[in-house]
Amino acid sequence: MNKNESISSKYQADSRSSTEGATAGAVNSPVDNENVEPADETLVTRSQAGDMEAFDELVTRYRGKIYAMTVNMIHNEADAWDLAQDTFVKAWKALPKFQARSNFYTWLYRISHNVTYDWLRKKQNWVEKSEFDDSIQSNQIDKSAPTSPRDMARPDENAERMELKESIREAISQLSPDHRSVILLKEVEGLRYEEIAERIGCTTGTVMSRLFYARKKLRTIFTEQNIYPS
Amino acid sequence: MKAEDEEKLTLWIDGQLEDDQVRDLLDAHPELADLKKSAGETGKLLRQQLPLEEDLPYPDFFNHRIRQRLEKEDTDAKLPALALKEEAQLFPWFTRSRLFAGFAFTAIAIGLIVHSVLGPDPTGSSDHTEIVGTYTPNPQVLASSRYDADAGATIIQLDGLAEIPADIQISGIFPRSYLPDASLAATTLRNRDTNEPIVILENDNYGRPSIRKTSL
């Protein structure tokens, strides 16, 4: 599959007949030749042999995706940066066991998924045990509050867009982690049910069930908060 | 609602089942009638607002930190084993070359310079380091030295060593002699990032190469 074909398939609606695993990996796995970046497989093989430069290239290639998905999951940029780091460190350690049964990004995403879930679980335990409520995060503080840091002045439109993005992330953070991950993989990454199941390690039926509830819940939140365009 | 019904409704929302195929479910749950439309709008908003990929802050530092962490963990895993043996045995790394991988080989290779003299040639004819003798505990490794005028450096060449992994970052080799006893020479390997000594190799009282210090 060439790059253009794979990109166009990324955003297609679910098609039960499309090829398994054709989405993310192919987009990021250009064919090896002198003028093109090395394929994931090449970099993975070199990394497995201890070549840290090759691994560095893989980090550069996927850090933006891992970071974005982590921010979407945990709604906190600083922690997402750290968790993305943890993901790559764990990936390096686990590389000797990677046997390319799935494409590299699918495998990497699964590590990221586990890292994020562990973090959310620990955080949840801490909140439950703590007498303090840290559920109010800095990005929830009223920006007009006199003691809050002020952003640079920006056009109204930009501010509105940022506000909408923030509202959506806030809405997503109200879902359970299970529901969050499936709705993000379905709607943001455009994956098919089977691909989501492979990414997070569950059955296709579970994915569909979680999607159903995530959509219902988001409908309620979006409606209550007037997020839907009028 | 049964799991099977949830799956059917999800397929319907995603356009893979017609309205008629879920009519009984919609009749039983009229509140779901507009779910297909709202799910479409939800998905559109998510795709518009949430990036699939995002520039993360300080991207170069991000990579650098990962590399630092990996190198530190790698060294942490190796050096304690080296430190435990540092005073005990003659060439302990030799029997554990697999365990210590490239690092030990590097250390051995450089620790071979057991009879080097630094500083000006006593004859005053040149100002380069003169290697008066070399010793390699591994007979498979051959050491030779020469002065490269273009580089302005004395080069010690070791043939027969295993390849050093690319993830070992050593800034340089700092051989040093204890004049007037030229047989007591030391070699220091430093961490490229911190410039801290990692390993100091020197001869023991019997002239055998040994690790004097390991630290990070």
Features:
heterodimer, A: 230 residues, mainly alpha, Rna Polymerase Sigma Factor, Chain: A, Arc Repressor Mutant, subunit A, 10 helices, globular, disordered N terminus, B: 216 residues, alpha+beta, 2 domains, four-stranded antiparallel beta sheet, two-stranded antiparallel sheet, 5 helices, 8 strands
Plain-language structure description:
The complex is a heterodimer of chains A (230) and B (216). With 230 residues, chain A is mainly α. Chain A has helices spanning 3-10, 24-27, 40-48, 52-74, 77-94, 104-129, 156-173, 177-187, 193-200, 204-224. Chain A folds into two domains: 1-132, Rna Polymerase Sigma Factor, Chain: A (Orthogonal Bundle); 151-230, Winged helix-like DNA-binding domain superfamily/Winged helix DNA-binding domain (Arc Repressor Mutant, subunit A). The radius of gyration of chain A is 19 Å and the shape is globular. The termini of chain A are far apart. With 216 residues, chain B is α+β, with helices and mostly antiparallel strands. Chain B folds into two domains: 3-49, no CATH class; 59-214, no CATH class. Chain B is built from five helices and eight strands; from the N terminus they run αααααββββββββ. Chain B has a four-stranded antiparallel beta sheet. In chain B, strands 1-2 form a two-stranded antiparallel sheet. In chain B, a hairpin with a 5-residue loop joins strand 6 and strand 7 (197-203). Chain B is rod-shaped and about 95 Å long. Mean pLDDT of chain B is 67; it is low at 81-125 and 178-183. At the A-B interface, helix 4, helix 5, helix 7, helix 8 and helix 10 of A face helix 1, helix 3 and helix 4 of B.
Number of domains of chain B: 2
Portion of residues in helices of chain B? Answer: 25-40%
CATH fourth-tier homologous superfamily of the largest domain in chain A: RNA polymerase sigma factor, region 2, helix turn helix motif
Estimated radius of gyration of chain B: 32 Å
How would you sum up the global shape of chain A? globular
Mean pLDDT of chain A: 77
Low-pLDDT residue intervals, each spanning 5 or more residues of chain B: 81-125, 178-183
Percent range for β-strand residues of chain A: under 5%
Shape of chain B: rod-shaped
Largest sheet of chain A: none
How many β-strands of chain A, per DSSP? 0
Kindly report the average pLDDT value of chain B: 67
Cα-atom Rg of chain A, whole angstroms? Answer: 19 Å
End-to-end span of chain B in angstroms? 60 Å
Summarize the helix and strand pattern of chain A as letters.
HHHHHHHHHH
What top-tier CATH class of the largest domain in chain A fits best?
Mainly Alpha
Q: Report the order of strands and helices of chain B.
A: HHHHHEEEEEEEE
Quickly give the structural class of chain A. Answer: mainly alpha
Number of domains of chain A: 2
And the CATH topology of the largest domain in chain A? Rna Polymerase Sigma Factor, Chain: A
